[in-house]
Amino acid sequence: MSTSFQTATRIFRILLVLIVAVGIAWVTNSVNASVHSALPYILVVLFAWECTRVLTIRYRKRKKRAPRERPTSG
Residue 48: which domain range? Predict the structure, then answer.
């Protein structure tokens, strides 16, 4: 069940990024053209942020599951 929940959460977050991107595009259409030319960069930053967040979460989960080394008493 947790895997389906994680998949649903991931899909929701991707949709949230797309909604934010569409909102930014809608706002920049009514503003200056120089802001509108920055839209692709904004989308790349949003996508990179999402990917970085996902990779960070995966790294933390892997780190938690890794067996801890026990110091040997000598």
Answer: 2-64
